[in-house]
Amino acid sequence: MPQRVAAVTGANRGLGLETARQLLAHGLRVALTGRDLDAVERALGGLDAAPGSAIAVAMDVTDPSSIKRAHRAIVKALGSVDVIVNNAAILLFESSDVLETPLDGFRKTFETNCFGVIEVCREFVPPMADRGYGRVVNVSSGAGQLSKMSTYAPAYSMSKSALNAFTRILAQTYRDAGVLANVVDPGWVRTDMGGRSAPRSVQQGADTTVWLATLPDNGPSGGFFRDRRAIEW
Ligand code: NDP
Fold it and tell me: From atom 11 of ligand 1, which residue's Cα is the shortest distance away?
């Protein structure tokens, strides 16, 4: 089994950093990416990774030229990218009244949480398909579940539902090319976004993401998972 290479977005803190840590523990080489290179380098420094097993790369998922530069840098340093974990996201302060959410709030949220993921996939997935191996893990949220939709953070919730839809379409498009694409709900996790009173640790929250990132070839694609189990859309 070749040593796979994973890239993680928003890996300078929270669930992204823990996902990078667990992927390294699984024997993958990892590119930690983030929009603030200093922050990513500090995060990498705290991982105590074996020499050559991890790199820090600048990537702002809302900037297509930054995504392209990051991809080139990772390929140069680590050879290829077999796994992409789209973890980066924002949750703005939001009213629970959808009609009070300003259009700009929708735009900003979708720009990062949905369009950013599409642009990252546009750059990273076709080379995976060319090589016949790829794993895409898009970090969504229970807030994006249509079956349980509430008034919580309308722009954030809608951006995650759209991300789920994108992932299902991507999965069907690349199914025969060896690329498995899934979405994960990490649960409510103690991070800057989740807050201190969340019940889950980052270790628990990242577990299903790492499981999906390392699926065998006969693993699922086009699914939505929490705690390694399929959940309702
Ligand atoms: P954090 O707010 O702690 O971290 C978010 C990460 O995303 C940061 O690294 C941040 O970078 C990065 N980011 C934001 N915008 C961009 C951008 N334009 N380009 C690159 N990186 C960016 O969140 P969590 O770790 O809690 O969340 C990780 C994922 O898990 C998200 O997708 C979130 O929606 C999801 N999730 C989290 C839950 C929770 O309870 N924590 C619950 C359900 C889902 P920077 O430091 O530069 O801001």
Answer: 10
